[in-house]
Amino acid sequence: MWPTLGQAVWALRGATSYPQVLRRVIDLGGDTDTVAAVAGGLAGAVFSTDGIPDRWRAVLHGRVPGFGDHRWTAPDLTTLASTLAAG
């Protein structure tokens, strides 16, 4: 866990944009998918969803447990997160 977190923080500290964080993770090599997942979460906190390129968000989709086979898009997930955060 500590190497993953250390690499994610390293990538974030030297970056000026969300995509640059992930590029830095990829350049490190190794367990890039795990480190990118952690770094992406941290970068989202720093750069917000507005920092994620539109072309990346346009293809985002996924399922949320408890909602059947509904495919959620980036705007759907943003609304869900805001609703959950508001309580």
From TrEMBL:
Q: Which GO terms describe its molecular function?
A: hydrolase activity
Keyword Hydrolase attributed: yes
Is Hydrolase found in the keyword set? yes
Give the keywords, sorted: Hydrolase
Q: Into which family does the record put it?
A: Belongs to the ADP-ribosylglycohydrolase family.
Q: Which PANTHER family match?
A: ADP-RIBOSYLGLYCOHYDROLASE, ADP-RIBOSYLHYDROLASE ARH3
Q: What name does this protein carry?
A: Unannotated protein
